[in-house]
Design a protein that fits this description.
The radius of gyration is 18 Å and the shape is globular. The longest helix has about 50 residues, at about 105-154. Helices cover about 45% and strands about 30% of the residues. A hairpin with a 3-residue loop joins strand 4 and strand 5. The chain has about 150 residues and is α+β, with helices and mostly antiparallel strands.
Length: about 150
Amino acid sequence: MNVTQKLYISQKECFDTLVSSAIYDVKNATGKTIQMRKLEGYKYQRTMSNGALATTKIVKVTPYDLYQFETSSRVNTHTTTYTIKATSETTCEVTYNELIETEKAMNKMNNIIVGFMFGFFRKKRVKNLLKSIELSVINDSKKKQEKLAAKSEQ
């Protein structure tokens, strides 16, 4: 599945939000706080929303351009890639790519059927995720500006 969307935040702001989310996920799953430069190659286990145990490996972290991770369960391996391209100083284009691999023929058939049936909803979910990243950055920026304005009035 491939989704590309323009966001009205900078490439750096988008990348930083994705990396902060990854660091938060690692802390939630392991209790450890790791730095961005140590993310690439980091592997940890976490419990999925359905209760299943999965292993997540952060495959590639290229500052401001790319963030990729793999999540492996007993059935599938999901490879998720965020590619971020600056379109101006204040906008970027994010391409979300998700690849699902499995060994067994029955699981492959299931993935094809589910992908076909629910593809529209999954794409909509990804678009909403990207929009929420954008809104989060915009809201944080507004709060910082309000704090600065309040301090300068004092």
